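Side project, low priority. Logging it here so it doesn't get lost.
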Amino acid sequence: MNALILAAGQGRRLWPYTSERPKCLLTIGTHSILEHQLLRLAAAGIDRVTVVAGFGLDAVRDEICRAQVGGMLVHVVYNPFFGVADNLISLWSARAEMGSDFLLLNGDNVFHPDIPRLLLETHPSSCRLLVQRQEVYGDDDMKVSLDNGRLLRIGKKLALTQTDATSIGMMRFTGEGAAALQQVLEDAVRSEYALGRFYLDCVQRLADASVDVACQDIGSLPWVDIDTPRDLQSVRHSPDRFEQDSGRTNMRELA
């Protein structure tokens, strides 16, 4: 099983922490965010990873060589448009790596080890999105609207009255789902607005085309997207909550 990690951006909102290094190389305890992800994925049984890099390309390659996660083959793909484009183009840069089933995640995500294991469980849907219900949703949350566990709408600007959960930025594509993603991805990059789009625009296109995108709730399992200095300091202050002994609790299929 392959995993694609989109980690091309500099993370300007994290300035000055990212003035000289991409945010995937910021440290949480003794590990970088990228190493944290590789270790979690390896523990879940992932044996191949493609990292889409851009800013700090050489530093990312050096970190992969340094980490040496046993038994895992890690390949780097370069996105030359990282300075002017959002992550839709990063996903398009890795289109050659979508020939078989794969997981997809963002390069700034710190998460509990049970979260990727959820995506590796047997499931009838060929497109799956992990989500979490919250009491309050912020402007930065990638909100989702659902119908019996199936994705209807996704976007940061989704009205709160239509919001059922938030995407945690981790997906699995298998078989027909992987092929459908590649098709909508090729269509999306032809848009004159493609440089400013997120890859979740493709997920919305799948839902609009009546492709079954199943949404699975992770319950109370902890995860964080590292977008701001406040996010970074919060995770650094309590890294233990992302460890195995925090438990696998309250996970369910959304209805």
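Brief comment: The chain is about 25% helix and 25% strand.
Revisit when time allows.
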